[in-house]
Amino acid sequence: MMEPSVVGAEAEPRTGAGPLLRQALGLSTLGPLAALVLAGLFFSIQSDRFLTGGNLSLIVQQVMVVGTLAIGQTLVILTAGIDLSNGAVMALGNIVMTRLAVASGLNVYLAIALGLLTCAGFGVLNGGLVTGLRLPPFIVTLGTLSIAFALTHIYSNEQTVTGLPSQLTYLGKTFALGQTDITYGSVLMVALFGLTWYVLSQTAAGRHLYAVGNHPEAARLTGIRTRRVLLGTYTVAGLIYGLAALLLVSRTGVGDPNAGQTDNLDSITAVVLGGTSLFGGRGSVIGTLLGALIVGVIRNGLQLIGTKSIYQTLITGILVIVAVSVDQLARRRQR
Amino acid sequence: MTVTAEQPADSKVGDVVFEARGLVKLYGHVTALDGCDLELRAGEVLAVIGDNGAGKSTLIKALSGAVVPDRGELLLDGTPVRLHTPLDARRYGIETVYQDLALAPALDIASNLYLGREIRRRGVAGWLRMLDKRAMRRQALRHMSELKIGLRSMTNAVEDLSGGQRQGVAVARAAAFARRLVIMDEPTAALGVRESGQVLDLIRRIRDRGLPVILVSHNMPHVFEVSDRIHVQRLGRRVALVRPQDHTMSDVVAIMTGAMPGTEQAAPADRPPEPAPDHTE
Amino acid sequence: MSELAKPAHLRRRSAGTDGAPPGATRTTRTTDPGAGRRPDRSPRRRAGGMAALAIPVVLALTLAACGSSDSGSGSGNGSSGGDITVGLITKTETNPFFVKMKEGAEKEAQAKGVKLMTAAGKFDGDNASQVTAIENMVVAGVKGILITPSDTKAIIPAIQKARDKGVLVIALDTPTDPQSAVDALFATNNFTAGELIGKYAKAVEGSKAVKIATLDLAPGITVGVLRHNGFLSGYGLAAVDNTASDQVTAPSVVCSQDTQGDQAKGQTAMENCLQKDPGINLVYTINEPAALGAYTALKAAGKEKDVLIVSVDGGCTGTKAVQDGKIAATSQQYPLKMAERGVDAVVDYAKTGNKVSGYTDTGVTLIAAKPASGVDSKDVAFGLANCWG
User: Fold this and answer.
1) Nearest CA in chain B to A334
2) Coil/strand/helix, residue B167
3) Which CATH architecture has domain A28-39+50-328?
4) Whole-prediction pTM value?
5) What is the ipTM of this complex?
6) CB B137 to CB A12 under 8 A?
7) Max alpha carbon distance in chain B (Å)?
8) Where does residue B187 fall: left (phi above 0), alpha (psi -120 to 50 degrees), or beta otherwise?
9) Is 3.40.50.2300 the CATH number for C73-188+336-356?
10) pLDDT tens digits, residue range A250-300?
11) Which distant-in-sequence residues (6+ apart) come within 8 Å of A328 by Cβ?
């Protein structure tokens, strides 16, 4: 009497670029994409200088540093953590790199490597405290923020480092793509986003990261080494902050001890605008790229049309609340 | 010394697959397991019942590798095994469906099924650690259909499913990877009548496919409906191992609460006095 | 054994397709608990989310555009200079010094019929925002940029890029390091500002033995160094001129603390100095907020009548404090003038191609309630008439 069940066979998606692209621009990133397009349209109407190759390239450059910080922030937030220290760690990295290269006369590549190592080291510190002592990430990174900040000012002695060897600012060089100049640094940022997207969505490690953020107990019971995943996430994030430091140096041409003081909040803004949930386990790093671009476009556009810069802050704040509310309401309506 | 009833002629119950002998577990001066035995035979659903504080959950944890007993041994197909972690149990082919399911709600069904055991593509893509999502989806679908679970889209997030559907996913995961047996901890506790019935069907299907099932439940009607034998736990030991056909529900409940004596031998006289029955596990 | 023959509690449920056993509930084809409830609203809810996000963005942007374009856009003043834009970048939006500077620039821009674009850093020392602002203004087509640099060294590459594109760059109030990195500097002579109050203090104290506390700005910032050194030089305690790049000290200086020009930090600094040496009787402060903070600390210690406080800035709040006797004397500077002259210079450049260059002293005046012999000063009435803020 038992009928064999007819389980509807779904049409299997084809492999290839199509489904991959669909995955990348998944449903959850459509919101930020729409917002970005709308903002772009708005400003291109308001000012004829907005849509020029030069200006668009400028926007990407201006977004480059915070965008890269936001990659690391995305990883941490996906694990249901948060990283308040990323701007300060980046500042320390940029001072370490530049001072070692200029004041201590180290080989440039060695200086860069040590700068990256310093930032990764802070990642290990953050991750170790979170996994080892089970301290909340907010508290841990609040503390390491001050530590990194202080170390930056102590080591730099408040002096901006100038006279950098050209290898340090190499990523600031441009190449021409048609009429536009593109910096190598922008290319690196986009490549980092692509690599991170790949790891998060196409590898087991990425899945484990999402699982740990979404339901750590479930992850543990299925055999995932949650502590290792967390420690690895913070460490990789730290390394990414080190790359952000290199991009910062290439953009400003100096080692600046005052850099990045509000970048931690800016990076969180980009992540949130991109649709990633602060509760962990949900979101896409492509959304973060869009979120960072939204902020960049709005800042650049508002400046182009002559708006007072305090309004940029106001609008960004409103957008963040709107973005989070929309996501929450949609989620709640669905239940 | 156990007392087991005669097996009926049409029973598929066979050799002993999993056995626990004399498990002891102490938490401070609280004795959770006091020389506990367990026996699971091939082709059967063994229900483990017991009142709160009887040591049920400690027993299950010991069987699934979440807890290491202080004394006693576990035998799988007659061979002693040591289970130090849940991963050890998995490696021996023992899968557990936990009471809270251990599913990541935001991830989809296929991802949850293969969580921690993802399939990678072959060739160059595999070196780049690329997941074979198509294969995982296909196979997840196959597992679902074999167990007659009617979920069609493996890309739905688990949180979009009803309680019964989620249970189905968790059970399918255990059934898909288990090689020796499946342990289920209160699978119908959070479900309504219809969904419970469907989960019980699922349990029967798993057993019929050749995987014996240890079922922990405090729902007597369900226990009586689906199990082939009932292990009654009380005060850290097995006090009875009976067939549902041979006893009434109220009798079994009475054995469970101590109102009626069990069918196992009592504790020897020279054991230290046991603590009050209201200790927690 | 057929299903129906089994006792009810053992019967399989939802056992078939359309040929459902009688009495069975609404069946699905499979054991799919809750199949009918499977939500398929995911695509729709995402679309809803999209639209919902988009609308407020549009609203917010429209609000921004309507509510906030800078004045001086020449609406109605269609006279000459219709297409000239001047950029002004200050350290922060909030410091009244910069607020006054911006007002002065706006007024002058309106008077000349040119457009003014403004920007600022988020905090004192925020170099990155200023770099971004320079880039955006250059793209927007400004003819000249007036800037109070937050980081006098780090801003140089961005300024260079702007100058390479033909944009005139003028530093206001704070020189870049090196000064030649900009086309011109319009600033107070900060060394003179310090000297004036140093001389005044010396004239008041005479040959009395003094114990001095200096409440400074922050390490490495030129303005702070110049005023501090000017004070000591004016008092006659140090032989230093305005080329020295580090703060000097003297034996009479018993305590030096940084305040970042902030009132609360000035108070803390004064408290700490009093702890160190309760005999302090002369306080040099980097600016009036720091001076007011010092006054509060001294008052709490009951010493406000015994200690002389001198300061720099000439803001209206500070000048009032001079009137009230809290601050003995202050060197008044003129941010409005800096801004005005800056705007004029850019307009001149845009119209004639003439680039202003070098250092232009925008003036500093000593304001004191009680004049001291041998030192030129103006009274409080003058100060209040010319103050900013």
Assistant:
1) B160
2) helix
3) Orthogonal Bundle (1.10)
4) 0.78
5) 0.85
6) yes
7) 68
8) alpha
9) yes
10) 988 889 898 888 899 999 999 999 989 889 999 999 999 999 999 999 888
11) none
